[in-house]
Every structure is written in C-alpha cells, then in structure tokens.
Amino acid sequence: MSKQVEFYFDFGSPYSYLAYKELPRVAQRTGAQIVWRPILLGGVFKATGNHSPAEIPAKGRWSKTDTARWSRRYGANLQQNPHFPVNTLALMRAAVGFQLQDEAAFHRYAETIFAAMWEQQRNLNDPAEIGAALTAAGFDARQVLAMIDDPAVKDALKQATEAAVARGVFGAPSFFVGDELFWGNDRLLFVEEALAA
Fold it and tell me: In this protein, which residues make up the domain named DSBA-like thioredoxin (predicted)?
C-alpha cells in the first residue's frame, strides 16, 4: 500500500492555500499520495470552540506578515484578499460535489477557487463573482449552482466536517499521516518526515 497524506482544507484559509501549493512537492519527494479532504472550517470552529486568527486583531495583523513570508518561501503568489473573511459554504459544497462526480474536475475546481480567492482577490462572498470565476475556467456556473443545492452534496460536506472533528481536527489546514495529526502549513516539515520514515 502506498504512503498517503490526508489534506483537510477550506478555501477561506490562506494557510490552506499555502499548503495546497507546497504539499504536492512534499508528496513528490516522498512518493506519497494526497487524499483531498474538503471540510467546512466554520463548522469545525463551531464544533471545537476554535476561532479564526482574523477575530483576534493582533494575530490577524501578524498573520498578514506571516502568510507573506510563507508565500515567498514556497514561491506562491498569495495576495491578501480584501473581502476576507469569506463564507465558504457554497464553495466547499461544490468541492465535495465535484469530488463525488469527477476527480479531474475537482482538481481543476480547487485550482480555480484557490486562485480566485488568494491570487486574484475576488469577492467570493458574491455569487456573481463565483460564477464569473467558474465561467472563466470553463465550468458551467448554473450546473455548479445546481450541484451546491443537491441534498446529497450538502449531507456529504456535513458528514466530512463531522468526521474531521471526530478525528481531532480543529483547524485548517490539517494533515494525517496514518493516525498522526499535523496542523498548519508550517508543520509540513513534520509531515514530510513522517512520510519519509
């Protein structure tokens, strides 16, 4: 059985974006497979009593500097989104919906949304902006909206988020190598060590 790293993420987390950029290189160096686990970070926060760094003014200011440092380290193009925080419920439902239907489309969707949020600074609180980003990437925005309203997709995201909390996830990004939990893109060093062991 090949080595795996499970990646729990939410598009609204800048640190999830940074991990999204760096984790494939970790997987390549270690010969590991990434298992993509979209979750609703707001649901995780509610269940665990955790809070976004943006809710703590000093930590929010520091995080802007910190994410810029990590962006340079990874060669990423993170731009602070002036519309942050974004309600990602619809975005994460679509991620789960694509994952249930078409793995290739899921990866194209993830790239589109991460880029729209953290490179293009689009206002993804606005359904019209989401639709424009999807259309520009070749998606049928109406089909995506219909998928978001599918009860099975809604339930799948809820179950995925509850399962993450049950495993001990309290924030994003989170990673599992076997049963060992790692939290934060800055723990990718330890993720890589665990995969290489």
Answer: 4-196
